[in-house]
Amino acid sequence: MPRIRQYADRDALKDLRGEIEAQGCRYGFKSQKALAEPMGVAQTTMGNWLRNPDLISLGDMRTMVKRLKLDPVIVLKALGYTAADIKKLGGNNSDRS
Questions:
Q1: 75: Cβ–Cβ under 8 A, 6 or more apart, which residues?
Q2: Over 60: is that where the pLDDT of 96 sits?
Q3: pLDDT tens digits for 83-93?
Q4: What are phi and psi of 44, to 5 degrees?
Q5: Given pLDDT bands bounded at 50, 70 and 90, which one contains residue 3?
Q6: How far is Cα 49 from Cα 20, in angstroms, rounded to an integer?
Q7: Could you write out the DSSP letters of every residue in 30-42?
Q8: Backbone angles phi, psi at 36, to 5 degrees
Q9: pLDDT, the chain, mean
Q10: CB of 47 within 8 A of CB of 32?
């Protein structure tokens, strides 16, 4: 079911948060503190990022993508790309909403 356009940004950030938490658990980072340590940030910073993923800087996002192997499609959507844009870029999971 397609998402309403006005909620697309909010939902993309929510999806990014879920991806960060899921990948963190998958790699054994079961708490904010455990997730923050390999990123080199404080637990409170990680908590802020999980509550508001739009606060994550590009450099920190790059590190997070490397360490947690986040789904590029979810990251691109959080950055404002549409499914059509991602498909043009060659994203293989662009059918996700």
A1: 16, 19, 61, 65
A2: no
A3: 888 888 885 55
A4: -65, -35
A5: low
A6: 10
A7: -SHHHHHHHHTS-
A8: -75, -35
A9: 85
A10: yes
